[in-house]
């Protein structure tokens, strides 16, 4: 093999190895208590006061989701997949509920409502596929009202 081709192959192998190392480091940091995904959604900078409750609720939903997705393998790939995906879908539902509580954009609110419905349907389908019973039915929280606008008399 001539030198330019050998260099190209070596560079590709090094790039691939770096990718594996970075990926492995990410997986290890996700399991060892290092800063996780929810930490990326918070900030130490001054936050608009009205956004603080949303950020807190969203961070709590993501933390719960990540913790609940860390399942011990059982040897049943299908059951393990469902055990990880149900909290993932529930996390999406919880984040969508937070948007319904605090968001104002009508288009985003409609998307959040759709997320809630479709994720609930997918959770039910996965549970049924592995023979798990469905949880009791509860009303869908898709009709949460937006938070009230600040009172113009107190905003002076």
Outline of this structure?
With 156 residues, the chain is mainly alpha-helical. The chain is built from 5 helices and no strands.
String of helices and strands: HHHHH
**Morphology:** globular
Which regions are unreliable across 5 or more consecutive residues at pLDDT < 50? Answer: 19-38, 148-156
Total number of distinct structural domains = 2
- How many DSSP-defined strands? 0
Biggest sheet layout: none
Radius of gyration: 22 Å
Class of secondary structure makeup: mainly alpha
User: Roughly how many Å apart are the termini?
Assistant: 76 Å
Percent of residues in helical segments?
Answer: 55-70%
Binned strand content: under 5%
- Average pLDDT figure: 75
- Count up the helices: 5
């Amino acid at each position: 093999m001539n030198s330019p081709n050998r260099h190209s192959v070596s560079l590709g192998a090094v790039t691939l190895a770096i990718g594996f190392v970075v990926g492995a480091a990410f997986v290890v940091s996700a399991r060892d208590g290092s800063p996780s995904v929810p930490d990326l959604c918070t900030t130490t900078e001054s936050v608009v006061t009205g956004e603080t409750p949303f950020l807190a609720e969203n961070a709590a939903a993501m933390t719960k989701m990540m913790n609940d997705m860390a399942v011990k393998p059982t040897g049943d790939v299908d059951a393990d997949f469902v055990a990880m995906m149900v909290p993932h879908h529930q996390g999406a539902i919880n984040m969508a509920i937070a948007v319904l509580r605090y968001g104002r954009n009508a288009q985003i609110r409609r998307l959040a409502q759709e997320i809630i419905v479709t994720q609930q349907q997918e959770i039910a389908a996965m549970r049924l596929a592995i023979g798990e019973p469905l949880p009791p039915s509860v009303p869908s929280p898709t009709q949460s009202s937006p938070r009230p606008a600040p009172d113009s008399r107190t905003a002076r």
